[in-house]
């Protein structure tokens, strides 16, 4: 991946895209290759930007491989099909990403997506949403009001087609879960928070599958730029199911209980370290520089002190400045 220009970085520094670009710069090649290898689904389509994996009958996850340098999608997403309707999850980084996923939905299910859900406002999940709409296709876009506002206020470059796609969005309640009936299959759209001030998860009961958005990052240290860590801790526990479940993260490979629990333990370790550093009056920058995840948590290859610093800053914001 070519290094990001300073201008690019400034434009995108509020999103997970800049975080991923920085991560790619520090990640060894072997780790980049490993990114996409660990899979629980059969790959039905492979592209430079990601692999579409069938995780169950009528359910597919797009596992993006952004560290290859292709920025079409950047985030993960998915397709959930019922008898009468098809839900596409995420708008992706560029409209071409949404166009591609919609085309796959039609190939696999016979239908262009009838519904689209955005898990949160970050550019790599939302900026391409207009790709689902055309002269003949008008899927119903769903997002919380806060997510819609943040996309319109913060995401760059500004795009009229994106604004138009969101103008007609069906607004989700920030408090109550919604049930979307696709025909013989109900998707629970659950309002959550913690990665940003407004996140949603998309959940199926049978088979047990959770599209977590960026509340779950598998084997990659998450972006805390907008995080509210205590809410994040609550949300990740609420998403965890006791029965056998497939967790589709916002970034990284599909996970099951072992990968999910490793992520929760990692967040807990960050919390412990942040609380300790905060009570010892160590700055977030210094604490971030000195921090290392314990080896018992396995491999988290995205090490760069600035990511840790962001996590500490998010915690300090909640705990009060020293
Ligand atoms: Zn994000």
Secondary-structure element order, as H and E?
A: HHHEEEEEHEHEHHEEEEEHEHHH
| C-alpha termini separation | 38 Å
| Chemical compounds bound to the protein | zinc ion
The number of strands is: 13
How many helices? The count is: 11
Task: Give the overall silhouette.
Answer: globular
**Global Rg:** 19 Å
Helix content: 25-40%
Q: In order across it, which strands form the biggest sheet?
A: 1-2-3-4-5-6-7-8
Largest sheet: 8 strands, mixed
Question: Which strand-content bin applies to the residues?
Answer: 15-25%
Structural class: alpha/beta
What is the average per-residue confidence, as pLDDT, rounded to a whole number?
A: 90
Low-confidence stretches: 1-13
Protein architecture, described:
This protein has 11 helices and 13 strands. The protein has helices at residues 6-12, 16-26, 29-37, 95-109, 123-126, 145-154, 160-167, 229-239, 257-279, 284-290, 305-319, and strands at residues 42-47, 50-56, 59-64, 77-81, 86-89, 115-117, 140-144, 170-172, 178-181, 186-192, 199-204, 209-211, 246-248. The structure holds zinc ion. Zinc ion binds next to loops. Residues 16, 120, 122, 195, 214, 223 line the site of zinc ion.
């Amino acid at each position: 991946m070519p290094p990001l220009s300073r201008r690019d970085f400034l434009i995108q520094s509020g999103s997970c895209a800049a975080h991923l670009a920085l991560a790619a710069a520090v990640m060894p090649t072997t780790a980049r290759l490993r990114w996409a290898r660990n899979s629980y689904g059969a790959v039905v389509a492979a592209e430079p930007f990601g692999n579409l994996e069938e995780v169950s009958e009528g359910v597919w996850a797009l596992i993006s491989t952004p560290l290859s340098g292709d920025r079409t999608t950047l985030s993960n997403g998915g397709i959930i099909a019922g008898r009468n309707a098809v839900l596409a999850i995420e708008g992706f980084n560029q409209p071409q990403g949404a166009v591609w996923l919609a085309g796959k939905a039609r190939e696999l299910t016979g239908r262009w997506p009838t519904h689209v859900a955005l898990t949160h406002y970050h550019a790599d999940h939302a900026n391409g949403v207009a790709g689902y709409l055309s002269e003949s296709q008008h899927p119903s876009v769903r997002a919380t009001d806060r997510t819609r506002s943040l996309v319109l206020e913060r995401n760059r470059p500004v795009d009229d087609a994106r604004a138009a796609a969101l103008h007609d969005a069906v607004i989700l309640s920030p408090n109550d879960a919604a049930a979307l009936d696709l025909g013989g299959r109900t998707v629970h759209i659950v309002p959550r928070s913690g990665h940003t001030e407004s996140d949603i998860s998309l959940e199926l009961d049978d088979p047990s599958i959770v599209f977590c958005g960026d509340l779950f990052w598998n084997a990659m240290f998450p972006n805390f730029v907008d995080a509210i860590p205590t809410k994040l801790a609550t949300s990740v526990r609420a998403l965890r199911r006791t029965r056998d479940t497939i967790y589709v993260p916002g970034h990284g490979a599909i996970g099951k209980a072992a990968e999910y629990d490793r992520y929760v333990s990692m967040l807990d370790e960050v919390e412990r370290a942040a609380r300790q550093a905060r009570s010892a009056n160590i700055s977030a920058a210094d604490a971030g520089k000195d921090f290392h995840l314990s080896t018992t948590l396995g491999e988290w290859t995205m090490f760069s002190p600035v990511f840790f610093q962001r996590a500490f800053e998010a915690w300090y914001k909640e705990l009060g400045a020293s």
